[in-house]
From TrEMBL:
Residues 99-125 are annotated as: Disordered. This is PqqD family protein. It comes from the Bacteria. Residues 99-108 have a biased composition (Basic and acidic residues).
Amino acid sequence: MRSVTRTWQPKPMVREHDGDALWAGPLPDGPIVRLDDMAALLLETLVEESRVGSDGASPLSAEHVLERLESVLVDRPVDAEETVEQFFADLERVGLVEGVEDGRDPGTARRAPTDSAIGSSEATG
């Protein structure tokens, strides 16, 4: 079985920092989620790094996001990439990010359903 490379990009959202927490909600209708600690840092890194290209947002892999956070990751777990992939899949479920497989255009990628809760966050709304 071949490995599918999945990349991620943020969808239109509002974000507001409240102390150490980040409140984020997809536009136009939410839901609003609270992200703490590493969860907030991962989303913020995805948002900021995907804007770097001159042609707007470009999808990023979980590995790329982790590389950008290398200076704050003291002991990166062996399964960090898989954990971040699952976290982004959870964020996709609530509408904050969009996954792209095999270089397909966003919106045409097959969405993977997930039943797990968003790590280090709580949904409201």
